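Hi everyone,

Forwarding the result from last night's run.
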Amino acid sequence: MSSSRIFLVGFSGTGKTAVGRRLASLLRWDFVDSDELIVETVGQGIKKIFANKGEKGFREYEKEIINELSKRENVVIATGGGAFIDQQSRENMLYSGLCVCLEAQSETILSRLSRAIDFSESSKNNDTPEKMQRPLLASEDGVVSLSKIENIKNDRQWAYSKAHWIVSTDYLSTEQVAQEIIRFTHRLSEKIHPVENNYLAATVMTSAGSYPIFVGWGILEKELGPQLTSSGFNGRAFILCDQSVLHPYGRAAQRSMHKSGIKAHLFVFPSGEKSKNLDTVRKVFDWMAELKVERRDVIVSVGGGVAGDLAGFVAATYLRGIAMVHIPTTLTAMVDSSIGGKAAVDLPHAKNLVGAFYPPKFVLSDVSALLTLPRRELGQGWAEALKHGFALDKGLVELYETHVKELLDLSPEITTKIISLNVALKARLVSEDEREMSGLRTLLNYGHTVGHAIETAAGYGVYLHGEAVSIGMVAAGNLGMAVGKTDPAILERQNSLLAEFNLPIAFSNVSVEQILEAIKLDKKSEAGEISWVILDGVGSSSLYRGIDQSLVREILVKMTK
């Protein structure tokens, strides 16, 4: 990857042209808009090219232009909304420059396109592709509709998630977006490792570098060893494997590495949250010390969230840090816990009190592993996926509602697609808020304040994590409704979908007072005040403080059965 060219990719109306011009000005580089160059080269407007050559003909012109631009130096390139979808163009951009995806909510995009002006408050330049016609978006009467934006954007999201960096532009000015890109260009340009792979779902960017997340059906044995060797790894592997998935997944991971010439050792621990403690960590340390683990070696987790937490904690602390890879085999781990670099173990007082932020080398999710997952375990994973949708992505919620039966039956194509979209969403938020400092990533904790408290109060294992999160989502929804932030129809829609996925929306045999005590230990509290993630729309949430404990108690009492 060259740091002398920056490609701006993403949907129409996200501000690529305006940001590109300002970014080029700040860097003192050239600026090129690929759509403008196509019009100039062909001698026809985009609408006319589509009319004469169709979309396929336009994409051929686009490929030629992208290929030409990928050879220029010191240039910022704003690309068309569909340019990053084509594999050849995408590979060209990923390998020849820094690819930054500008993101925005569908409603924001509609507003910008309807105004047909630059989204920057200060820009007076109306001669931009934001003014140009978009043949794929306009209906017969020439009006751009929200539903069309949502449909096309959802279809393209898998490709946008492969960019090196994603910046949400909804509430930022042109200047702020440009400065954000410059900041991360300086910080990360030498740490980005472009990866183009059919199974690549997203790339997470962190202060320590980037790591890819691969998602596919039946890919474990085929991909693990080759991915390690292609990344330059030349040491031994030490697998931390949940006992319940030793056969077939622990052994499959071992076989894959052996086939690639990597010697792999196995440490098997008992299943369940009861293993996620310092006693287990000490046993792993002793095992690694006996085998004389070196810094060039790698820890590989195989299992669910417990395996990932143990491996992350061990990798972060042993020899002051060695490489790590996650092989999640549960739905919860695939869509949530394996992404973000959080690793922790439990203390008797509460969950996840001792830990670190420590990113993996890569994550490889074989979706077919879900076929052997117990139904209850699978169900709790859908809670985390549903949480992503209701808190952050309306399009995901609509997909869940449309494909409930297929997802419960683990239909390979739609299940893999849904998991990939969840991965891309989580990867974007982690990249933008690596250590949960800005509040953005904190929105992923929707349902977790009460959820974690119920797990603690009931005793770990009485409620599975996702089951507790489901109950927590209902509690948060009721709180939001009580303070006038959440529409009752949203809560009804959420609870109905949770029930369709066989998730609990009430609880029993747990003391409300014990739940309230456990809530006080919530990691999102500041000066003793809890920050609640509250829904203000479907796919939209925010942090809310100042909720009185008596209101929380009242809602929890009503939720007991």
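The chain has three domains: 5-196, 201-373, 386-561.

Cheers,
N.
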